[in-house]
Amino acid sequence: MVAFSHLAVALSAVAGSLAAPAAVADPSVPDFELNGDHLMRRQDYNQNYKTSGNVNFSPTNNGYSVQFSNAGDFVVGKGWRTGTTRNINFQGQTNPTSGTVLVSVYGWTTNPLIEYYIQEYTSNGAGSAQGQKVGSVTCDGSVYDIWKHQQVNKPSIQGTSTFWQYISNRQSKRPGSGTVTTKCHFDAWAKLGLNLGQHNYQTLATEGWGNAGGSSQYTISG
């Protein structure tokens, strides 16, 4: 497994040769929506990045779909320009046919600068897991292994920097529907001394590398 870097305001990802995209605000989507009795921030970020291959990304107001083939490195997804301890509900499916494909909750914080993954699914091996395994936590019906990894002089949302990656890697993989209780992970990380800072963006993302092929489709709320 080879560590990889994200570009510009995008990201440095955690595994394979993958690089993630910048999150782009969607000006056509209002900031908030009413869900029952709760006022929630609408999804207002699109991720769309690739280096090679065929990647057809179609964002919607409440999710996205993507078809891909012969992809050397791509990340697409939908989310929020400000992360928080929201419960992220996703409904859909990922169907890989080749390469390595991930589905994760992905985000950044500043002060400290942290890149984080809550990996729900990988088609091949450990996916995003690398560095040092520091513990585990049970959230949403599965044990997750917790990893940390330092990126040295790599691109980040604050330019070339040295920063830590925090990774929760779900043992019971789910390419389909579920809920990610982000607070469960954030609290577990804090107990291990893995402290987050001020939240930047947060997405549900499909990633792939190594001549990745397949498709993903999700609707998202949170």
Any overview of this molecule?
This protein is mainly beta and 222 residues long. The protein has one domain: Sandwich (Jelly Rolls), CATH 2.60.120.180. It is 5% helix and 62% strand. It has 1 helix and 12 strands. The chain has one helix spanning 182-191; strands at residues 23-25, 32-35, 38-41, 45-60, 63-80, 87-110, 114-122, 132-139, 142-154, 161-170, 178-181, 198-221. The strands form 2 sheets. Strands 1, 4, 5, 6, 7, 8, 9, 10, 11 and 12 form a 10-stranded mixed beta sheet that branches. The longest helix has 10 residues, at 182-191. The protein starts with 22 loop residues before the first strand and ends with a strand.
Helical content stands at under 10%
H-E order: EEEEEEEEEEEHE
Instruction: Tell me the overall shape.
Output: globular
Count, helices: 1
Question: Could you describe the largest sheet, including whether it forms a barrel?
Answer: 10 strands, mixed
Q: End-to-end span in angstroms? A: 32 Å
CATH architecture: Sandwich
- In percent terms, what proportion of residues is strand? over 45%
Question: What is the structural class?
Answer: mainly beta
- Overall pLDDT, averaged? 85
Task: Give me the CATH superfamily.
Answer: Glycoside hydrolase family 11/12, catalytic domain
Report low-confidence residues grouped into runs of 5 or more.
Answer: 1-40
Report Rg: 16 Å
Total domains: 1
